[in-house]
Description:
Elements: H1 6-23, H2 32-63
Amino acid sequence: MFTYRKEVDSYIKACEHLISAATMRGNAKLTVEECQVVEYCARELSKITETEADSAMDLQIMLWPHDTGTATPATWDTDS
């Protein structure tokens, strides 16, 4: 089991509660406004994640500029 910082853990729990409540029979569906704000937050979080992934790729390109595959410690040749 992974340990996440408290903000990420709180976010995960909130998402789980929202999904559970929204899909339970008899519960009110999300309003249009609620859907829009949830979508906005997810989109903004996605931008942060994409930026961090891009930074990791930029670092990989700087370290291994001629490598067209994925360079990871598991693929390094340590016998050379």
